Amino acid sequence: MEESRPMATGTVQIDNERVRVTLWQFAPGEATGHHRHEMDYVVVPLATGRLLITNPNGTESRSELVAGKSYFRHAGVEHNVINDNPKEFAFVEIEMKQQTVDPSQPLASASAKPLSAKESCR
User: Fold this and answer.
1) How many beta carbons lie within 10 A of that of residue 83, not counting itself?
2) What is the pLDDT of residues 35-66, one digit of tens each?
3) What separation in angstroms does the CA of 92 have from each of 2, 23, 56, 61?
4) What is the DSSP string of the chain?
């Protein structure tokens, strides 16, 4: 059985029909608690650091995150995420809700081209 840890703070910043955006803030040793992701999601680390991941079967792994280097995961991931740093750690989690696609509309390009300041403020 997993030891009891203090809980990280999850602050929902946006929750609409398309996405849920949550800011997760962790003091050293704080955890999200065991959970299952019901939606695909992207994590955007706000700092560089290490997270301890505990899986439902009791195995552990460590993930090295780099500030600003986002990553994607499919729905179904189950884990507890723990701040394994001697300092505070934070990331933004963006969960993508199911969408119906209108086949008459063109799909947006998935380019990684940086946006100008003017484009990013739209």
Assistant:
1) 25
2) 999 999 999 999 999 999 999 999 999 999 99
3) 25, 5, 23, 21
4) -PPP-PBPEEEEEEESSSEEEEEEEE-TT-B--SEE--SEEEEEESS-EEEEEE-TTS-EEEEEE-TT--EEE-TT-EEEEEE-SSS-EEEEEEEEPP----TTSPPPP---PPPPHHHHT-
Q: What is the pTM of this model?
A: 0.79
Q: Are 68 and 36 a contacting pair, CB within 8 Å?
A: no
Q: Cα(94)–Cα(60) distance, rounded to whole angstroms?
A: 24
Q: CB atoms < 10 A from the CB of 122, how many?
A: 5
56 near 39, Cβ under 8 Å?
no
The string of pLDDT tens digits covering residues 3-14 is 689 999 999 999
Q: What is the dihedral angle through the alpha carbons of 60, 76, 47, 57, rounded to the nearest 10 degrees?
A: -10
